[in-house]
């Protein structure tokens, strides 16, 4: 390990790039959602009403719809089969709110159809959480306490499960948005250019997942650069 580790670490640029990408993506989705939150849908349906219509049209009657506090905290819980919509989506009749609600319905439909990437992502959740939590402790133990390159390599490998989770998340989210736009058009909840405007909201939201994946990959690259090239155990 070179002296830069103790004084100046040039790999921090990778962390900086990841942070910038995440901030830009977050700012984009917030500004886009805010813009189209002011555009009332011609149907006048709220996010919750649109979600219920999409679910029923898909033959799904066992998924509940609940309001959850926060801004853009919307999500589908496959374990409890509940679609939770945030305050800015649940009772809003904007095309932005309807788009977000439809996206979460896309996840419910994926669950109903046993969409493979969603199943894989669900299975990876505990593995990725464990890997992200234990990776740095193992690396530090191997680096400072035992001098074990094997422990360091295990730590890096465990962190890579978080990268795998982020990569699997991408097709899941893009597919949910694709399903959302299709269902909104098929059901007549949105009309004409409302669909293209809502697609902009969902595309902006997708950027946050792309940025998260890029940031995690950059963190893994940093770990490999810093610790992956050390000499193996004797």
From TrEMBL:
Transmembrane segments: 6-25, 123-145, 151-174, 206-228
A Pfam family reported for this protein in Swiss-Prot or TrEMBL: Zn_peptidase_2
Keywords, alphabetical: Membrane, Transmembrane, Transmembrane helix
Protein name (database record): Putative membrane protein
Origin species: Herbinix luporum
Lineage: Bacteria, Bacillati, Bacillota, Clostridia, Lachnospirales
């Amino acid at each position: 390990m070179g002296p830069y580790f103790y004084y100046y670490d040039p790999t921090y640029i990778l962390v900086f790039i990841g942070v910038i990408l995440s901030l830009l993506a977050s700012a984009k989705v917030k500004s886009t959602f805010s813009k189209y939150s002011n555009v009332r849908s011609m149907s006048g349906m709220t996010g919750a009403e649109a979600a219920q219509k999409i679910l029923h049209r898909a033959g799904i009657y066992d998924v509940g719809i609940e309001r959850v506090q926060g801004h853009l905290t919307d999500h589908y819980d496959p374990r409890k089969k509940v679609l939770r919509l945030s305050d800015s989506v649940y009772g809003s009749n904007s095309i932005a709110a309807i788009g977000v609600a439809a996206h979460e319905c896309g996840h419910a439909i994926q669950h109903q159809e046993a969409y493979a990437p969603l199943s894989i992502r669900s299975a990876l959740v505990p593995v990725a959480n464990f890997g992200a939590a234990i990776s740095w402790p193992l690396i530090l133990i191997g680096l400072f306490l035992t001098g074990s390159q094997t422990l360091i390599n295990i730590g890096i490998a465990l962190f890579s499960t978080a990268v795998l989770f982020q990569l699997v998340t991408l097709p899941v989210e893009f597919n949910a948005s694709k399903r959302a736009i299709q269902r909104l058009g098929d059901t007549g909840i949105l009309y004409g250019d409302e669909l293209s405007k809502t697609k902009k909201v969902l595309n902006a939201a997708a950027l946050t997942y792309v940025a998260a994946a890029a940031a995690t990959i950059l963190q893994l690259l940093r770990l490999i650069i810093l610790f992956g090239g050390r000499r193996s155990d004797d």
